[in-house]
Write a structure and sequence with these properties.
The chain is α/β, with parallel strands linked by helices. It has two domains: 9-149, 5'-nuclease (Rossmann fold), CATH 3.40.50.1010; 154-394, D-Maltodextrin-Binding Protein, domain 2 (3-Layer(aba) Sandwich), CATH 3.40.190.290. The protein has helices spanning 13-31, 43-55, 59-70, 80-89, 98-113, 139-149, 168-179, 192-200, 221-228, 278-289, 307-315, 326-331, 350-353, 359-367, 370-378; strands at residues 9-11, 39-42, 74-76, 116-119, 133-135, 157-163, 183-187, 206-209, 212-213, 218-219, 235-249, 270-273, 303-304, 321-325, 335-349, 382-383, 390-393. The strands form three sheets. Strands 6, 7, 8, 11, 12, 13, 14, 15, 16 and 17 form a ten-stranded mixed beta sheet that branches. A five-stranded parallel beta sheet has the order 3-2-1-4-5. Helix 10 links the parallel strand 12 (270-273) and strand 13 (303-304). Helix 2 (43-55) runs antiparallel to helix 3 and helix 4 (80-89) crosses helix 5 (98-113). The two termini are 35 Å apart.
């Protein structure tokens, strides 16, 4: 609906998501500086919010939250005047990027209303002449954005993925860049737990994780919930791949290692992964189940940070064996003893999952392209069955 009252602020979808996720109090004082009718959202933004509600895990609850959020705000239609403004600022440009197209529509509407556009993603509105743009509404919100801005810049569209190492992430980065040349993935391999901590510190957009939960026998959901809830962080766990984890030994398995119990043998030298990695968590669980003291394992204290580093140590004869994925063994021509099938997920903070930056990647994951899946399977020990599926929202 339209209104005769002068609108001073127009909130975009990124800022609405920021508020809906429980940050209303952070800007309550700033809202009090404006009279009823001066803060608005576009009907276009409402449509985006409704779409996210329908796709969420709890549509009824989220619909109630959305309705409550919209109560004090004015909803303004995209009218003829906004359309004329759109034509002036960029209506003739390519609308191939859905995020950029939506940003142009909102920018045109804000300019037409002579209102300031409030956002948490200023990079979407770069180089739009005549647009009054503001990040957040008060110092606390601005501070939160400054922390987030270390992972998103206006000059480039980079999705930073921290956490566990997986060979298929390189294939995913290549696929995304081929489909969207303006987007690239940067991966930092720090282990599952460190990757999740990077999300809490807003140093990454997503984290690869395969943390085993001994309490449930599941992967990721429990550990992520326990880590994030005290910090009031909401996240979506997106399925990526299943893979086989096991013991890597030299070709032909000269020490005749048959399973985890053999790691404690006097004649076996082991190479480990770092604390906080999903592989280390899984190994320690297996050792507890077998009542094996880790300190009895020769090489338990030697740590490598990736599956390929473990495989290289074994291939070079620096160790007899190590824990890792089948793909790493296949890549270096090693013998492999399967131990467990695990799920490697992408943990994505809700604000990132709902952003224009993540959307193209989520579309690719849900497409589960046959050629891409074949390339992943060829690495060895992989299944792409969970790819793109929403495992949980925590």
């Amino acid at each position: 609906m339209t209104t005769w009252k002068p609108i001073k602020l127009l909130l975009d979808a990124s800022y609405c998501f920021f508020l809906i996720r429980g940050r209303v109090r952070a800007v309550q004082a700033a809202f009090e500086h404006y009279r009823p009718g001066e803060i608005a959202v576009s009907s276009l933004t409402v449509a985006v919010l409704q779409s996210q509600v329908r796709r969420s895990l709890d549509p009824e609850r989220n619909q109630r939250a959305l309705e409550q959020f919209l109560l004090p705000l004015v909803v303004v239609d995209f009218d003829g005047g906004a359309a004329l403004t759109l034509g002036r600022i960029g209506g003739g440009s390519s609308f191939g990027d859905a995020g950029r197209a939506h940003a142009l529509l909102l920018a045109a509407q804000a300019i037409h209303l002579n209102a300031t556009l409030i956002t948490m993603q200023p990079e979407l509105y770069a180089a739009i002449d005549g647009l009054a743009l503001r990040v957040g509404l008060d110092a606390e919100v601005d501070k939160a954005y400054v922390a987030a801005s270390s992972i998103t810049t206006a000059q480039e569209r980079v999705i930073r993925i921290s956490g566990s190492h997986d060979l298929s992430l390189t294939l995913l980065a290549d696929w995304l860049h081929a489909e969207h040349p303006d987007i690239r993935i940067e991966a930092a391999h720090s282990g599952s737990l460190r990757g999740l901590e990077a999300l809490l510190q807003r140093q990454a957009h997503a984290a690869g994780s395969h943390l085993f939960d001994a309490a449930t026998g599941e992967f990721n959901v429990g550990p992520v919930r326990r880590l994030f809830e005290p910090h009031a962080m909401r996240a979506v766990i997106v399925g990526f791949v299943e893979r086989t984890q096991g013991i890597l030994t030299a070709y032909g398995n000269p020490k005749q290692i048959g399973g985890v119990s053999d790691l404690a043998r006097e004649d076996v030298v082991f190479v480990n992964r770092q604390p906080g990695s999903g592989t280390r968590t899984l190994l320690d669980y297996q050792l507890r189940q077998l009542s094996i003291d880790p300190q009895t394992i020769h090489g338990y204290a030697r740590e490598e940070r990736t599956h390929l580093a473990v495989a290289t140590a074994v291939a070079q004869g620096a160790a007899d064996c190590g824990m890792g994925i089948q793909a790493a063994a296949q890549a270096l021509g090693l013998h492999f003893i399967p131990v467990v099938q695990e799920r490697f997920d992408l943990v994505v903070p809700l604000e990132v999952f709902e952003s224009a930056l993540w959307a193209p990647l989520q579309v690719l994951l849900q497409r589960c392209d046959a050629a891409f899946c074949a390339r992943v399977a060829a690495l060895g020990g992989y299944s792409t069955q969970p790819m793109g599926r929403i495992i949980a929202e925590v």
